[in-house]
Amino acid sequence: MRSAVEIDGAFGEGGGQILRTSLALSALLMRPFVVRNIRAKRKNPGLAAQHLVCVRSMARLVSADIRGAELSSTYLQFTPQSPPPPNSHFDFRIPTAGSVSLLLHALYAPLIFCGAEVTLTGGTHVAWSPPFEHLRYAFLPALSRFGVKAEFSLLRAGFYPRGGGMIRANFRPSDSLNPLRLEKRGEIKALVCRILLANLPDHIARRQEKTLRDALGSHNLRFVHLRPPATGPGNCVSIEIVAEGCYAVFSSLGAKGKPAEEVAREAAFAVERFLASSATVDEHLADQLLLPAALASGETVFLAPHKTAHLETNAYAIRSFLDVDISIEEGATATRIRVKGCGYRAAS
Fold this sequence. Notes:
CATH class of the largest domain: Alpha Beta
CATH superfamily of the largest domain: RNA 3'-terminal phosphate cyclase domain
Helix content: 25-40%
CATH topology of the largest domain: UDP-n-acetylglucosamine1-carboxyvinyl-transferase, Chain
Radius of gyration: 20 Å
């Protein structure tokens, strides 16, 4: 096995993104890594419970030896031993309302090449992470353009503080990934407004629909009202931008004491701000697409609304494992990201 990759966990925004990307590439390439200064810039540095779930879940996938996997640890050594068995089923549970979306982002890279069914339990709609609708209507369609064969489904919604939500991801094996080019957004065909309500009165959704019609009425609006099974009360407004060359979803979460109209206005404002740019992907998706772009055969190009610390941090983690060219060029109305992929191919 090759020598361990050395990662500085304090680079850039110094959060959990470095750890998740390092876990993904370590498991895919069967290459160990050591990360120091984990979350050094955070108020409470070191591994939090959410990060430990990512580490231990990936360790299960690849039978890894791990050292330093403890709460508040600023050091981690991760040594994968064997690839995930093909077409297996895995069940991972976060005992709190920790984000299942972030956990899936840590785990998916090796699974798209070996195939697997993964069930994740935890928070599906929680703060500081993309809700399920972003996974399903932005990340998954973009992955499909790379050639990934996958399906994501929401089985039960889980909100803070109870969690208990459940999603399922099915991956069919891919040999390699295609590059993706999203350089022109194209005509905006519709805005799909999904109003998710769980164990709360219907008038909340009606008020939110009216607010969205008032704010975005110049667009072709399509409304979808969702009442999924859930472990507790919760509300999320998500707006998907439908265009030929664009993948973007903007969401806002309800909270105790937060007016329904404010939830809807937050999502609408994010959409308007994005449409004022020439970007083809939202800022969260821009971070997320760096990894499949780095693995693809050829050059991937897409436009983000602006450069973020998350974007630069993820690029650093990827370059630590792969000899790839990632360029991030700021422009007047968007930031152009270009990635020359390494052409990774699944072992035969």
